[in-house]
Amino acid sequence: TTVNAMNLFGLKGRDAIKVADMLATAANTTTGEVQDFALALQMGGSVAKLAGLSMNETVTILEALAQAGINGSDAGTSLKSFFMQITRDTPKAKAAMAELNLEFFKQNGEMKSLPAIAANLKSSFGSLSKEQFLQKAGTIAGTDAIRTLWALYDTGPDKLNKLSAANEKQGTAAEVARKKNNNLRG
C-alpha cells in the first residue's frame, strides 16, 4: 500500500515512513481502515494527482469521505467523479456554479486548496434549502460526485486543516504497531 501510494505521487523511498504514518493516522481518525484508503487511492488517486492534489490533500479528502461513511473504492470513485464533474463544460453546471459564485479553480487554472473549496461551498450552499442544495449540487457534481461535494461542505475548512495537520504527524504507524503487539493476542 505504501509503495503504491509513493509511486502514484512520485515520492521517494525516504518518504515511506511518512506515507505509512499518514495512512495509519487516516485510519485512526476515521471509520476507514488502511485497506479502505488503499482502495480509494487506487480508484481515485491518479485523478486527484492530475487535479494537482498532493498525497496529504488526497488522504485528507478521503478522510472527509470516510467520516461521511464513504470508504474504499466507493470513496475513490466519488473522488474521481468529483474532479471530472467540476470541470464539465455544460450550460446547466456552469449556470449553477455562476449563480452560487462557486469556483474550484484559481485564475491560473490550478485547483484551490481543499479548505478554500470547503469555505466556498459553505458560503455558496449555506443558505439553501435541502431541496435547493440537492438540486444545485446534483447539477454541478452529478449523482456519484455529490458525495465528495457533501463531504467537503460538511467537514468544512477548519476540520480539513486539522485533518491535514494530523496527517503530517510522524510515528503513528509505529505507535499502532506497538499497541497491536502489546496485548495477549499480539
Verbal overview:
- This protein has 186 residues and is mostly helical.
- 73% of the residues lie in helices and 0% in strands.
- It has 9 helices and no strands.
- It has helices at 2-9, 16-29, 34-50, 55-67, 72-85, 91-100, 114-125, 130-167, 172-181.
- Helix 3 (34-50) packs across helix 4 and helix 3 (34-50) packs parallel to helix 5 (72-85).
- The longest helix has 38 residues, at 130-167.
- The radius of gyration is 17 Å and the shape is globular.
- The model has no long low-confidence stretch (mean pLDDT 91).
Structural class: mainly alpha
Oligomer: single chain
Which bin fits the share of residues in helices? over 70%
**Tally of alpha and pi helices:** 9
State Rg.
17 Å
Strand content is under 5%
Total strand count, please? 0
Show unreliable segments: none
The largest pleated sheet is described as:
none
Shape: globular
SSE order in H/E notation?
HHHHHHHHH
Overall mean pLDDT score?
Answer: 91
How far apart, in Å, are the first and last alpha carbons?
A: 22 Å
From the structure above, extract its key features.
186 residues, mainly alpha, 9 helices, 73% helix, globular
Give the topology.
Blueprint: H1 2-9, H2 16-29, H3 34-50, H4 55-67, H5 72-85, H6 91-100, H7 114-125, H8 130-167, H9 172-181
Short description:
By secondary structure, this protein is an all-alpha fold.
